[in-house]
């Protein structure tokens, strides 16, 4: 009976060993499958990461370009507004110069006030880049508009200035209207 119990114990031990071996093999296969699955997942995640990095870089680039475009548009708008405002102020400059010419040679406090106002307005315009067009170096079609012929002026020279011209930041704001010699 002891031998029989011994054999049963050995058979039981053998069955347990076989079960453990089978279980170990199943776990090993599961681990192998799991490692392969994990490697596949890692590759997929790395590809997704590369794609997202590319999208992020593209979005950053587009944002920078948008900011630059908005800044350029804002600068152009600012220049346009300043140009319109300066053109409107030139009418006041012309009117003040006409008032001074109409006063003639008579000195008065009113005339002095108009002269100081004109001087202050011209100084303010100069601060913002509005400068009078040069009239001393002869006729220049880019800066002057010939509206007639001055009989007493030499050919290519400016005879009479009917209206002063101005530039804004080296761009023509208003051409000078002049009479030119033949």
Automatic annotation (TrEMBL):
One BP term from GO: protein folding
Stretches the record annotates as Disordered: 1-28
Superkingdom as given in the UniProt entry: Bacteria
Biased composition (Polar residues): 1-13
Record InterPro entries: GrpE, GrpE_CC, GrpE_head
Coiled-coil annotated spans: 28-55
UniProt-annotated location(s): Cytoplasm
Major location (coarse): cytoplasm
Keywords, comma-separated and alphabetical: Chaperone, Coiled coil, Cytoplasm, Stress response
Gene Ontology MF annotations: adenyl-nucleotide exchange factor activity; protein homodimerization activity; protein-folding chaperone binding; unfolded protein binding
Cellular component annotations (GO), alphabetically ordered: cytosol
Comp. bias (Low complexity): 14-28
Functional description taken from the UniProt entry: Participates actively in the response to hyperosmotic and heat shock by preventing the aggregation of stress-denatured proteins, in association with DnaK and GrpE. It is the nucleotide exchange factor for DnaK and may function as a thermosensor. Unfolded proteins bind initially to DnaJ; upon interaction with the DnaJ-bound protein, DnaK hydrolyzes its bound ATP, resulting in the formation of a stable complex. GrpE releases ADP from DnaK; ATP binding to DnaK triggers the release of the substrate protein, thus completing the reaction cycle.
Subunit structure of this chain's protein: Homodimer.
HAMAP family referenced in this protein's UniProt entry, alphabetically: GrpE
Record-stated family: Belongs to the GrpE family.
Record protein name field: Protein GrpE
Organism of provenance: Acinetobacter kyonggiensis
């Amino acid at each position: 009976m002891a031998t029989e119990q011994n054999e049963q114990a050995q058979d039981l031990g053998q069955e347990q060993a076989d079960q453990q071996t089978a279980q170990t093999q199943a776990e090993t296969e599961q681990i192998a499958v799991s490692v392969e699955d994990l490697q596949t997942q890692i590759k997929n995640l790395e590809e997704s990461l590369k794609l997202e990095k590319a999208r992020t870089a593209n979005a950053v680039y587009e944002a920078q370009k948008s900011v630059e475009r908005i800044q350029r548009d804002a600068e152009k708008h600012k220049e346009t507004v300043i140009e319109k405002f300066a053109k409107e102020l030139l009418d006041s400059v012309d009117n003040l110069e006409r008032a001074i010419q109409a006063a003639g040679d008579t000195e008065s406090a009113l005339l002095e006030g108009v002269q100081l106002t004109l001087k202050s307005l011209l100084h303010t315009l100069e601060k913002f880049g509005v400068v009078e067009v040069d009239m001393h170096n002869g006729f220049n079609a880019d800066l002057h508009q010939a509206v007639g012929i001055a009989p007493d002026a030499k050919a290519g020279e400016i005879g009479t200035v009917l209206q002063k011209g101005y530039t804004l930041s080296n761009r023509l704001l208003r051409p000078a209207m002049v009479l030119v010699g033949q």
